[in-house]
Design brief:
Layout lengths: L1 E8 L17 H13 L4 E9 L11 H14 L3 E4 L5 H11 L2 E4 H12 L3 H16 L10 E2 L12 E2 L5 H32 L3 E6 L5 H9 L16 E7 L3 E7 L9 H6 L1 H8 L3 E7 L5 H14 L11 E6 L6 H13 L6 E2 L8 H12 L4 E7 L4 H10 L1 E7 L5 E7 L4 H10 L4
Parallel strand pairs: 1-2, 1-3, 3-4, 7-9, 7-10, 10-11, 11-12
Antiparallel strand pairs: 5-6, 8-9, 13-15, 14-15
Length: 436
């Protein structure tokens, strides 16, 4: 489908740097991101531009002159869709569709459409449908809605094979309640899985970050997995987990999660709470930043805003959060020097500069993860009699043996580092060996 992308911006004084209302991101970056979102579902972007917006109109967002100008552009480009990188009310969306004789999507609708096409698991599909229906519930002023499609997505774009049905608030509420019931079951299942992982005493490390920051590529590098990794917004939607060794051999569960984005719809955050609970429950959160991106600082604030919705205060020095500055291979010499100065000047939560593409810095990242998780490790010196060979074997499998010596009697003096989470299991092994 041919689409036009429009980014409303607040006019600024001559010579000032144009910024979107309430956002710290440049208009050029917003436009590039909006185009990338459109291309993420294979739309043909035939035109893209910013539109000055000093006083939003309640009926059409833009003034009548601008509406007419855009209508002419829609006709000239034979566009079937206009994407507006701004939140639209149901009335505004309906009136613009009538004025332009094409479909209109706001930012939330576009992101929901992308998620609808990317949800491959039953859990992902449930979460996206819940977000869609919550969004659609307030837009029943429109003369059409879609609850079923033969293809992916949720019907914003229309097209062949579409199964349209008339619906009302009651039907939507019933479906929402059914979805919430199913998702409560998902939450219980995930809680059981987490409890099972806790029994293995492997800490959970979650990768988070702005969409397209390189989380999946980094995940693949660290785990040897083959999770989908593309230079594309929201390439990863369904979470992936793998066991991996870091640092001195500590085993962890690494989780790759959905990417965040500026103005991420609150309905999506709420719907994906079941998935994002893996982040909430994580022992360590690795914030993967695209350090080569010109708006990396703004992206940091956007990620922090989403984490705050999960009651994780990344700005207040949460001990569980560390940063991996990815895409070092894209930095200029000056950019690399600046990044190294910033890292050298960090007194706490020092970032690690990495390149998931080339492998640069990955050993340092593994060690940093191990060090952070090992902050509460205990180092013990044990006298293990010859008859307690099973205990020594357990220590080699579940702790780090820093050194050992065997006496003439066959007893072993071992110096070991034990993860605090393994303490209870270690005490159990001591009792079995008759040493406690």
């Amino acid at each position: 489908m041919r689409a036009i992308v429009l980014v409303p911006v607040k006019p600024t004084a001559a010579g000032a740097n144009a910024r979107a209302p309430a956002l710290a991101r440049s208009t050029s970056d917003r436009l590039a991101e909006a185009v990338a979102l459109a291309k993420a579902i294979e739309l043909e972007v035939c035109d893209a531009d910013t539109v000055p917006l000093s006083h939003p109109r309640a009926a059409t967002l833009f003034g009548s002159g601008k509406v007419a100008e855009i209508a002419a552009s829609v006709a000239a480009h034979a566009a079937g869709l206009v994407i507006i990188d701004h939140q639209l009310s149901a009335i505004q969306q309906r009136n613009l569709e009538r004025a332009w004789a094409c479909k209109v999507l706001d930012r939330t609708g576009l992101i929901l459409e992308i998620f609808g096409e990317r949800a491959h698991t039953r859990e992902g599909a449930l979460q996206v449908e819940l977000a869609h229906l919550t969004y659609q519930k307030s837009r029943l002023v429109r003369t059409w809605t879609h609850l079923e499609r033969q293809r992916g997505g949720f019907g914003f774009l229309g097209g062949p094979g579409e199964a349209q049905i008339e619906t009302d608030r009651r039907l939507i509420e019933e479906r929402i309640e059914a979805l919430r019931k199913d998702l409560r079951s998902v939450v219980r299942t995930r809680a059981l899985h987490r409890a099972g992982r806790r029994r293995t005493s492997f800490p959970l490390v979650a990768l988070v970050g702005y969409t397209n920051a390189g989380k999946s590529t980094l995940f693949n590098r660290l785990t040897g997995a083959a999770a989908l990794a593309r230079d594309q917004l929201f390439a990863t939607l369904d979470p992936t987990m793998r066991a991996v060794a870091v640092g001195r051999g500590r085993r962890i569960i690494l989780s790759d999660t959905v990417g965040f984005i500026s103005d991420l719809p609150t309905t999506l955050v709420a719907a994906f709470r079941a998935t994002l609970e893996e982040v909430v429950a994580a022992d360590l959160i690795v914030h993967v930043r695209d350090i080569s991106h010109p708006e990396t600082e703004a992206q940091v604030r956007d990620v922090a805003a989403v984490l705050a919705q999960l009651d994780i205060d990344a700005d207040a020095g949460d001990r569980r959060v560390m940063e991996a500055w990815n895409k070092a291979d894209r930095l200029s010499d000056a950019g690399r020097a600046e990044a190294m100065r910033a890292i050298g000047g960090a007194k706490e939560r020092r970032p690690v500069l990495v390149s998931a593409r080339t492998g640069e810095g990955l050993d340092a990242l593994r060690q940093a993860i191990d060090d952070r998780l090992g902050a509460d490790d205990e180092i013990l010196t044990l006298e293990i009699p010859a008859r307690a060979g099973a205990l020594l074997s357990w220590l080699h499998d579940n702790a780090e043996v820093l050194g050992q010596e065997t006496t003439d009697s066959g007893a072993v003096t071992a110096r070991v580092r034990i993860d605090a989470t393994m303490r209870a299991r270690f005490q159990g092994q001591l009792r079995r060996a008759g040493l406690a």
